[in-house]
Amino acid sequence: MRGNAVGFEPNTNTLPWRGTSARGGYSTVRDLLRFADALRARKLLDARYTELLTTGKVSTPGGGKYAFGFGDNVRNGLRCYGHNGGAPEKNGDLEICDGGYVVAVLANMDPPAAGRISDFVVNRIQLPTNTSIGSR
Fold it and tell me: Model-level pTM?
C-alpha cells in the first residue's frame, strides 16, 4: 500500500509480473529474519564460506567494503553486513550485526526510506563492553 491525500491504495500495478534479482523479489520481514538467522547459525553455509561470503573485499565510497553480495561496515564500533535495494515506491534493507542483532526493514516508499530506518536503529545499538568487533 502507498499513502496519498485520499488514503491508501494498492501498489500492485507498480510491481513486476514476477520476482527478479534486481527489483521485484518478494519477501517479508519475517523471511529476512529467518534468512539472517540461518546464515548466522551456519545452516546455509559452513563457517568458512559464511565468512568468505560476508567479509568485505572491495572498498566502497561510504567507507565500508563490499563482499559477495553483502555490504560490510563498522558503525559506532558495531560490525554489520547485509544488503539493500529498492525502486520507486518500494525498498528494503537487511543488516546482520555483531552481538546477535538483525535489522530488517521493508517500506512501500521510495528509497532510501528503509535504509534511513535501518541506520536509525543500527546507530542506537549499544554493544556490551566485553563484545569485540568481528565476534560471531
Answer: 0.79
